[in-house]
Specification:
Elements lengths: L1 E13 L7 H9 L9 H11 L16 E2 L5 E2 L1 E4 L4 E3 L5 E3 L6 H21 L7 H13 L4 E2 L3 E6 L5 H25 L11 E14 L12
Antiparallel strand pairs: 1-8, 1-9, 2-3, 4-8, 5-6, 5-7
Helix pairs in contact: 1-2, 1-5, 3-4
């Protein structure tokens, strides 16, 4: 015997590290912000543009749910790995295809080695790490290590969004950069106006959490 609860994740894939804007994009797309309050100015734009009541934010898109981050802060979104891309371990984001040519592979290798040599030179925070960074250099000369590239924004939902809701999400995701830049100009807040964020596509993922009955007892306390 088992029971399950479903979590749907609407994912926006981009070409930039999404940790710089995931909460703001979610706020602009849905009007929802987490406990941290980040993106409230873009959520205000959502309510202004959609005509929904800003005094009842949880009445709008009630199927959007919040999940705790690594610090226990509940948020309706998070960064998410992007298929077809990888991180070099030093903040460099690349398409997988760059490793298909010797020139592309060497470009990634040169950046890794340059970053390691920079750290060796600085002896980070006064503690020598020369042996570690030299080991990374030696490994990079043999092969390139690939790490997840978090360029996507995941929005949590407790049900599948309707086709109409998906259309709105896609439309607002595409309008996020222009709206954010306008807000930057109007308020001089200076969040992300320096970045050209290109939306690459959208995904909808269904995640199932299943619980299996381990043991049961009758009212008399006997095993069943």
């Amino acid at each position: 015997m088992s029971n399950s609860s479903d979590l749907w994740t609407f994912i926006v894939d981009t070409d930039k590290y999404s940790g710089n804007f995931e909460r703001e994009m979610c706020a602009f797309m849905t009007g929802r912000v987490g406990e941290c309050g980040c993106g409230d100015d873009l959520a205000a734009l959502f309510f202004e543009e959609t005509g929904n009541n800003p005094d009842e934010p949880h009445e709008v898109n009630p199927h959007i749910v919040e999940q705790p981050d690594d610090h226990g802060c509940y948020r309706p979104c998070s960064i998410h790995p992007t298929p077809g891309f990888f991180n070099d371990g030093f903040g460099g984001e690349y398409p997988d295809s760059i490793l298909d040519t010797p020139e592309g592979e060497q470009e990634v290798r040169d950046r890794i080695i340059a970053k390691c040599e920079e750290y060796i030179q600085r002896e980070m925070t006064g503690v020598p790490h020369t042996d570690h960074w030299q080991k990374v250099i030696d490994e990079a000369k043999e092969s390139i290590s690939k790490y997840p590239s978090y360029q996507s924004v995941a929005i949590f939902m407790n049900r599948r969004p309707t086709d109409e809701e998906v259309v709105v999400l896609i439309e607002r995701a595409k309008g996020f950069l222009a709206a954010s830049r306008k807000l930057d100009k109007d308020t001089d807040r200076g969040y992300i106006s320096h970045e050209d964020i290109n939306v690459l596509g959208f995904r909808l993922v269904k995640e199932m959490t299943t619980g299996t009955l381990d043991q049961a007892w009758s009212a008399t306390g006997e095993n069943e």
